[in-house]
Structures are given as C-alpha cells and as structure tokens.
Amino acid sequence: MSFNLIRDQNWNAKWEENFDPVIIEDKVVIKAPFHKEQFNTNLEIIIQPQMSFGTGHHQTTWLMAKRLYELDLKGKDVLDMGTGTGVLAILAEKRGAAKVFAPDIDEWSFKNAKENCQMNNCERIEVVLGDHQTITDKSFDIIVANINKNVLIEQFSVYSDCLKSSGKLLISGFFETDQTELINKAKEHGFIFEQTYTKDEWAMIEFTA
Question: Following DSSP, what letter does each residue of the chain receive, concatenated?
C-alpha cells in the first residue's frame, strides 16, 4: 500500500476557483456570492450551493430554469417540489409568481434554500421541511419537480390533485430513455403531454392538467 502526501492548501478557495457561474441563454445567470463580475443578463440569482442540489450546472436544472423563465408566472401559485438550493423557487418569484411553496425532505437543503431565498431578497417563497404530504391541502397553477423517475411516478397522483385546471406540470431528473414510461404514467393520472426538452441525454417533460 502506498500513500501520497497532498500539500496543504485553501480547499474552499480551490473549490471557488473551479465553480463557474451558469448562464442560461443570456437570460439568467446563476452565480455564487463570491462571483463579483457583472453579467449582461435579464435576471440574476445568487446561490450558496453548499451540499444541496440545484446550482444550474446539472442539465436538468438548466432545462427547468430555461422553461420556467419562458412561462408567464405573473400572479401564479407555484410549487417547487424538492427545492434543493431553492434556485427554481427563486426564479419563479423573480418572474412574478404570487406565491411559491418549496418543500424538501433533506434538512440541509431546507436550511440552504432558506438562506438562498434571503440572499435574493425573496419574500413570497415558503420553504418547508417535508415530503409530498405538505402539499395535499394546496393547489397550484404550476408545479415543477426536478427529482428522479421513481419518485415522480409515485407522486403523479398527488400532483394531479394539487394542480389547477389548465395548470402546467414540469418534470425532470431523468434520462431521455425514461420519457415514454413517464409520459404513459402521467397520462394515467389525467395529464396531457405537451412537449419534451433534452440536453446531453437528460430530459424534461411538460404537461398540462
């Protein structure tokens, strides 16, 4: 067995050095607090990523953010299921959502999302610690769920009960090869398939109620 001695260094600074801002089609920039440069975009989101999912670097977050930016969110009630860093919830408020409900089952994500909401001066986002049971008595115009295939399949019935008539459901967190199964499962719960978006073998699907 052999060992290599790694020279001591500022690991936080090293991590920051390799953490690049994410720019979504020149419309939105997602950056960390230590990024001091200015970007010529319509909207800026500051995220302290820590250990939560949702910095925009992953293809599924990028796809969801792009589509959410394109939708008319003014005055809408939005659910960001499994909010992670809170990036999609923050985007929804900045695009005019009336209220955003943002649950996550992970305590670290819950705390991180609350911190990020405060950092972005968001006042209409309710971040909660919990699962799909937190939404059973609520209704939404738009639901975004960037989770994984199995959880999405389990929760389609809950989303169906919570989504208002003609509302939109955006799902991601899976590969292109999973599309057919998810579309068929969603149809069983009354969702109407609209379109699919893909990036580097990852996919996002849009439905209406």
Answer: ----PPPP--HHHHHHHT---EEETTTEEEE-TT-------SEEEE---TT-S-SS-SHHHHHHHHHHHHS--TT-EEEEET-TTSHHHHHHHHTT-SEEEEEES-HHHHHHHHHHHHHTT--SEEEEE--GGGGTT--EEEEEEES-HHHHHHHHHHHHHHEEEEEEEEEEEEEGGGHHHHHHHHHHTTPEEEEEEEETTEEEEEEE-
